[in-house]
């Protein structure tokens, strides 16, 4: 009978140590799986929407169009020069003997486009000085973890 009772006690101790290990691992993983910074930010914005301000960014794009040149030749018998200029287009027709030379150019252009893009930004304010009672919950959790480790250690030594 004595042997059976000592075996039962060892089995119970093993079960207790496994149970304590499971509890430690559960607490550890719960601490690791805490809330993300995005969740905290969303919660803070939900509590106080004034911390988010909408700003407008102005983006300026500049495009350059290249100049286009055209030259062509015709044959005639008279002398004459015709020049046509309209905005950025310039055409010159030159008659010399039996040859007509046509030269055209479209000057390059610069296109500037300004686009306004609304962007939300978080207003940063300095944190208030911490009070000693704010760390009380962390101290309680730390004490509980140490106490749990001591219980596990003592149950394994028996």
Based on the model shown, name its key terms:
4-stranded antiparallel beta sheet, 158 residues, two-stranded antiparallel ribbon, 3 helices
The largest β sheet comes out as: 4 strands, antiparallel
Beta fraction: 35-45%
Note the gap between the termini. Answer: 20 Å
Round the mean pLDDT to the nearest integer and report it: 76
Uncertain spans = none
Helix content: 40-55%
Order of strands side by side in the largest beta sheet? Answer: 2-5-4-3
Order of helices and strands: HHEEEEEEH
**Basic shape:** rod-shaped
Number of strands: 6
Q: Which structural category fits the helices and strands?
A: alpha+beta
Radius of gyration: 42 Å
Total count of helical runs of at least 4 residues: 3
What does this structure look like?
The chain is α+β, with helices and mostly antiparallel strands and 158 residues long. The protein is built from three helices and six strands. The strands form two sheets. A four-stranded antiparallel β-sheet has the order 2-5-4-3, with no helix packed on it. A two-stranded antiparallel sheet has the order 1-6. Helix 1 (2-32) runs antiparallel to helix 3. The longest helix is centred in the N-terminal third of the chain and has 31 residues, at 2-32.
Record the SSE blueprint:
Elements (H helix, E strand, L loop, with lengths): L1 H31 L4 H11 L4 E14 L2 E7 L5 E7 L2 E8 L2 E8 L2 E14 L13 H22 L1
Antiparallel strand pairs: 1-6, 2-5, 3-4, 4-5
Outline of the structure:
By secondary structure, this protein is an alpha+beta fold.
